[in-house]
Amino acid sequence: ESKEGSVKAGDVQFEANTHMPLCMRRIDNHLRSHNHVKHTGRLTYGLFLKQIGLSMDDAMLLFSTLMSVKGGGSKEVFEKSAYGYNIRHNYGKEGRKTSYSSMGCSTIVGQPPLVDSNDCHGCPYKFRDEGALRKLLQTEQINPQSRELPKVRPTNGDIEDIIKDAREM
Predict the structure, then answer these.
(1) What is the number of alpha carbons within 13 Å of residue 43 lying toward its C-beta?
(2) Alpha-carbon distance 24 to 104, whole Å?
C-alpha cells in the first residue's frame, strides 16, 4: 500500500496509461470517455486508487470532475451525493467506519458479468468478446520509461499468446 497522498488526481490518467493493470486502465478509459461508471466499476477503481496512494480529497476531486453525467456538476454537490458517500465509505469515514482495501485479481475475476455497455468492471482477460480484448491490447500506450520515448504495445505474437492464455481461464 502506498502512502496516502503520493498520487494526485492530476496524475491518475498518466498512471493509468503507463503503470496500471489492464482492468484498471479499462475502467479509467471508460470513466473518461463516458463520464460515468456503474457501482461495481467505481468500487473496484476507487479502492485501487486508494491503495496506490490517492487521498480521499483527491478521489473526490477526480470523480466529481469526471462523473459529469450523474455527479451533480460541482465538487460540492458531488460530495453531498450518494457518490460522495461511497468514496467516504471506502476510506472508512462513513457507514461501518471500515477502511477497505483494494480487490485482488481473484475477486476481480469473480465479479458479476457485464450486463450492458455501461459496465466496465471485471477482468478483461476473462472475456466474452475476443475482438474487444484484441482491440484493447493493440492500443498503443505511453512508454512507462518516458513520455518522450515511442509509444509501446504488445507484438502480434504476444497478443496471440495472451488470447490463448485467456481462453484457458
Answers:
(1) 15
(2) 12
Q: Which of 50, 36, 46 is nearest to 120 (CA)?
A: 36
Instruction: In whole angstroms, give the CA distance from residue 33 to residue 85.
Output: 23
Per-residue pLDDT of the chain (169 residues; tens, 9 = 90+): 667 778 999 999 989 988 899 999 999 999 999 999 999 999 999 999 999 999 999 999 999 999 987 867 788 899 999 999 999 999 999 999 998 999 999 999 888 877 777 788 888 888 667 888 888 888 877 777 777 878 888 888 888 988 888 887 7
Give residue 162's Cα distance to chain centre. 21
| Total length of the chain | 169
Q: What are phi and psi of 102, to 5 degrees?
A: -70, 165
